[in-house]
Amino acid sequence: MNEYLTPAEARTRIKVSKTFMSDLLTSGRLRSSKVGRLRRIAATDLEEYMKARIDRAA
Predict the structure, then answer these.
(1) In 10 A of CB 36, how many CB atoms?
(2) Could you tell me how far CA 34 lies from the centroid of its own chain?
(3) What pLDDT score was predicted for residue 50?
(4) Residue 27 belongs to what domain range?
(5) 33 C-beta neighbours (distance < 10 Å), count
(6) Neighbouring C-alpha atoms within 13 Å toward the C-beta of 24
(7) How far from the centroid of its chain's Cα atoms is residue 26's Cα?
(8) Quick one: residue 15, left, alpha or beta (phi over 0 = left, psi -120 to 50 = alpha)?
(9) Is residue 5 within 8 Å of 39, Cβ to Cβ?
(10) pLDDT tens readout for residues 24-40
(11) Which of 2, 11, 37, 38 has the most CB atoms around it within 10 Å of its CB?
């Protein structure tokens, strides 16, 4: 079963600001789902984002 994170938990894991996390979510660069009014990020999507970010930097 996949782990789902709140935006606050996700930004703590990747060490970005609240504003930057908001930009990632609204631009679609980081996939997320809405559950009612709440936004959730699959841990696998967060890992994919980080891997792509590392690959671009290399």
Answers:
(1) 5
(2) 13
(3) 94
(4) 4-57
(5) 11
(6) 22
(7) 11
(8) left
(9) no
(10) 999 999 999 999 999 99
(11) 11
3-state secondary structure (DSSP) of residue 19 = helix
The end-to-end CA distance of the chain, in Å, is: 31
Q: How many domains does the chain have?
A: 1
DSSP code of 31?
-
Distance between CA atoms of 56 and 58, rounded to whole angstroms? 6
Nearest to 31 by CA among 20, 22, 42, 23: 42
Question: Could you tell me how many residues make up the chain?
Answer: 58
Over its C-alpha atoms, the chain yields an Rg (Å, rounded) of 11
Classify residue 36 by its DSSP letter: T
Place of tokens 């009014």: 37
pTM of the predicted model as reported, rounded to 2 decimal places: 0.85
